[in-house]
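Dissemination and training. As part of the outreach component of the grant, students in the summer workshop were shown how a complex can be specified as a set of sequence lines and then modelled as a single object. The example used during the hands-on session is reproduced here so that future cohorts can follow it. Participants entered these lines:
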Amino acid sequence: MTTNLPSNDRALRERAAAVIPGGMYGHLSTVLLPDDYPQFFDRGEGAYIWDADGTRYLDLMCAYGPNLFGYAVESVDAAAIAGIRRGDPLTGPSELMVELAEQMVGMVSHADWAMFCKNGTDATTMALMTARAQTKRKTVVLAKGAYHGAAPWCTPRPMGTTAEDRANQIFCTYNDIASLEEAVAKAGDDLAAIFAAPFKHDSFVDQSLPDPAYARRARELCDEAGAMLVVDDVRAGLRIARDCSWSVVGVKPDLSTWGKAIANGHPISALLGADTAREGAQSIYVTGSFWYAMAPMAAALETLRLVRETNYLEKTERLGQQLRDGLHDSAGAHGFSLRQTGPAQMPLIMFDEDPDLRLGFAWASEMLKRGIYMHPWHNMFLCDAMDEDDISAAINAADGAFAALKRQRPTLGPVTKLAAFA
Amino acid sequence: MTTNLPSNDRALRERAAAVIPGGMYGHLSTVLLPDDYPQFFDRGEGAYIWDADGTRYLDLMCAYGPNLFGYAVESVDAAAIAGIRRGDPLTGPSELMVELAEQMVGMVSHADWAMFCKNGTDATTMALMTARAQTKRKTVVLAKGAYHGAAPWCTPRPMGTTAEDRANQIFCTYNDIASLEEAVAKAGDDLAAIFAAPFKHDSFVDQSLPDPAYARRARELCDEAGAMLVVDDVRAGLRIARDCSWSVVGVKPDLSTWGKAIANGHPISALLGADTAREGAQSIYVTGSFWYAMAPMAAALETLRLVRETNYLEKTERLGQQLRDGLHDSAGAHGFSLRQTGPAQMPLIMFDEDPDLRLGFAWASEMLKRGIYMHPWHNMFLCDAMDEDDISAAINAADGAFAALKRQRPTLGPVTKLAAFA
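and obtained this result:
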């Protein structure tokens, strides 16, 4: 299956197959992407990435979220490098930890305190533990299909986990108030928390923005039960608002989780909380060898400065809309109909009449050939390093890709690698 | 309690108390250290750290393990910085991931493959999941009191966790073959894994080296049951051997977990495995936003070069023995008797006749005043940046500290902050 790939990627895959289980793992594995997608990359700059064979792409994945201002932003990297050269990590935190906590608390309207960690999963797990410690209850309500990390309690695939790892969880349907109320009723007097994605950004299905009534009802139900409302902003944080993403629907959670973009790719995540959850947060024991390192905190401080002082948010929204409009028109001109869902700056693009994703896969391949790296079943991300010309180039590429797809359509077979997910 | 601290540290603590639950959390919190220990640090270089008020210490904690070759090692940092400037992290891994997997597999005799992650806890959790996926069983045997991370299944304090989080665990006593056999018998036909620290390095109690018969019996029991043997080398890895730490007792695990020092402080951890566990590893879904970043992989490659090409291991063993001998003599000259346990390069120092640690706390304070940062109840670490003069300085400081302790002894009260742990 990889025999037509350029030589460096193919050689790396062969070496990797010997020393990495399955050759690669996790969300950056290309195992569920079209066969011609490169697995290995060489470098990134601004809005572009170069694969291991030197081919350049406009990268609509932005490292699956961390890239908010572009790859290799000088000022952010310089801050991190200065931290590294201060001997990072040390036997205790630096003043940057306090400064970063103060700045995040100042920026996020529901937050009174912050804790820092490394993975998004660390933050969601700490939210779970904090909610249980605070309420002295166990049951959490989550939306079916929502991704909250890859620990045993939440990983989307069950291998290696036990039924006990998933105990005390009740599932509802996102944006469905009746199902949320039913789940909360089922929890009875044991409701510790309601977890919510800021919008529905599950893989393989259309995204949907939060119904404000749903968000408000989640808040009310938590208030009535004395439970914690958690917004998992790991993926969307800083991309929807300069605040928690549910600020746009006027709802303040007790806890919010952050990661990915908060240091523009430097490794740090965070749990933010209101005073309603402080005692619980203070009582749990969580830690990591590298959690208090100053380099990514310095990078986060510089990223937050850019968040405050630039129009990155309005710009990525505008470019996302430009892309959405252009793709809509181009698809229509070639006889295709797209469902482009979610916020324009975090788009998911699916084809109508494409239940097994054969159109999506073939189109993504055609885009890749034209230098645009897109994803057929996961939301994408725009970054501040993109400009109107980049988006125009993507729309031009799409025109060619739709034309090619139209020619291929009669002979396209099902995507066999997705059969297990059908 | 912090009113006598120098002003920068005090001011930072006050600010932190407002925006970080408890003012600080995790293993770098000074809440269970003597009152005069600084919480915040400014920088590190070689074997030394400077606190937020500019006071310099010879650092016997080495960031709780990550510092193996010294703080701010130029060649390691340069490798990481080059990775950062390549736009790290990207939408896929770089060739460095393959190279690092190959090098770790080449170095660690039991390993056929590697997976990389961020926290030590990621690696131990992946070991747990891999063992369960490989064996299709649930029960794991662990040693009472051993630290394997801070996720709900293993965190040493139960707040925020549930009984279900700790299900399917059976505890034995480290180095006690009969108790290990009993635990395995209790697991019956459901034994997925035996977890083992490379030596007993629990907090608050004497360390002990592994009894080779215990290690061999653990291997035999796993072989008989078709279970996985896991050595958790997160803390001790690269400090005992240029291989898995149980190579010194001639026992090969199926899985070993690594972190802390493998990139000299840059954020990366790893799960290494034999082919006996490859299928399980390949089947689990684990990932993290920053796991595939090339900067810490580049740092790890340079650290491994230093591991291969320098005598850091023999040097830290020798310096550790110099420290141990010098402290033994100095303590004896002042009428004190120490228990110095574990490998000399990872020493734990406890006083005889000191059940509530009042001597240990007071002595650590006196050492701190003399510019030596030590820990009264957690193992310490030597690093390659130390030299004979540093150790002599520590022994000289100890002489003054023991003399001061002798004068204080009649008036020392119990350490109230440890009462909860008595």
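Residues 312-333 of chain A form the longest helix (22 residues). Students were then asked to discuss how this feature might be tested experimentally.
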